[in-house]
Structure of Cbb3-type cytochrome c oxidase subunit II:
Amino acid sequence: MSARFVTLVAGIFCFFAALITQGFLPFFEPSARTNRVTAVVRTDFGQLKWMMTQATDYTPLQKLGRDVYLREGCWYCHSQYVRPVTGETRRWGPVTESGEFAYDVPHLFGTRRIGPDLMRVGLKFSDEWHLAHFWNPRMLSPDSIMAPYRGLFDTPEQPVKIVDDGAGNRTLERTPVSEGLFDFASKEQIKLTPNADGLLFVPMQARGKAPVIVIPNEEYKGDAVKIAAETKDLEGLIAYIQKLGMDRGKWRDLFEPQQLEVTEVTFPRSSEWIAHGREVYERRCLGCHGVNGDGNGPAATFLYKQRPRSFAAAVFKFRLTKEPLPTDGDLLRTITRGVRGTAMPAWYELPLTDRLAVIQYIKYELAVDRSDPAEPYAFFIEEPPGPPLYIGKPPTVSQAILERGKEVWKIAKCWECHGQGGKGDGQKAAGLKDDLGFSILPADLTSGQFKSGSAVEDIFRTMTTGLSGTPMPSYRDSLPEEDRWALSYYVLALSAYKDPLAGAPLAIADKDRAALNELTLEAGSPDKAYVPGGVPAQNTSELGEGNGGSVTEKQNAAEGG
């Protein structure tokens, strides 16, 4: 018997063994027998704590998306497993636990990391970012080798003309294509903006509404658009991707690599750094913010809820200065952290030199008024940022402070835009616009997706400075400091014990909620997670982190098992 024959037989045996164990057996004998996971929750007092809880099954839409994920072969390149080593956890997030796979048959662990690991991708990017990414990955990630998935979009061949609707608005010509996507007789409108190339994205929520084409700053100068419409398969796929990792709750708010708190960075103007910043911008930022920094990049049409920032207008939302322009430290904080709930991702993986260089390019090349070519007005040179405002140590939170915050919420009339419950559905919400003329929705404060950051200091900063370019005002002069702190704690409390993805209240017993609300309870990591019943987990082996382990007798005893 030759060695070649033995190798052939062994190879065939291994192939079929792998096929049976990884392809067929998981359908009949799932390896994950527990749905126990540790997750981060926000308490009523704004603290973030780990606790033992249960993973949830996929919704019908997420199940559809998982089927699309399998059908399209996404799992060929993307793994869904964070290994327990430092490089893994600092790049992706907390180590995966066996309970996260309770509803996955077959499992999609994967080992070929041609693309990024996706087990912690949920809510890392907005739905709009994913839409642009599936249309053309290289608009957002020039280094990506992922193929476009335009087959998931409905892309009619015939362009549709932009016409006047007779009431002073621009709309689309009625054709079999447009009438199949919209209801022109509806009183409910959907406002859409094509990109500079004439591509118009149509989301699922546009179905049954009348289209209004919004081009307040000549974002598109043509008279006809090419349509790329969202489909149910695409909607489901994005819903599935956003679910991944969300059984671990608000863990991203505790993710150390993207945490950055800086007040000032002194960085003199440098032509060499500006040149490097231009390279960084063209590779990382141009897809959304555009060649000229006007917020009209090729991906902008997909960002129909929140348009990209226009650097040319020199209006920046996030700062800690009395004057409108931010410091280098403010810009570095925003770039590093990203803007949660929007298409602006966290760029903590980008080298610090790249982040500092792109700040130079934004300040001195993009934030310039060129309406008079003979005398361009460089905002950061003519109106340099003033000194940073001081934020002191926040007061110790209490029930009395929350009650005061609720009163301030009413006094400041926050409910007019954000709604009585903070869901962004106030009576003035529908008519709000930003300074560039685009519709803007108030934040849903119950989701916990705070744009400026998740700490009470971040909320206080927003209350103090407002958000430039938006209807969100500054309360620095109208509310005393103690009221701003109280209001900030109250805003945090609106997202307490809520599912970060679905927004639904978490099923937590009153006694466990009271225990988690104790300010002295330490539960800052999965191995110290609070276990319902009041017993803290002692080590990671009790949690079954990534090793198929089961819950301990201590956990069963705490639950009366």
Observations:
- The CA atoms of residues 10 and 159 lie 58 Å apart.
- The radius of gyration is 25 Å.
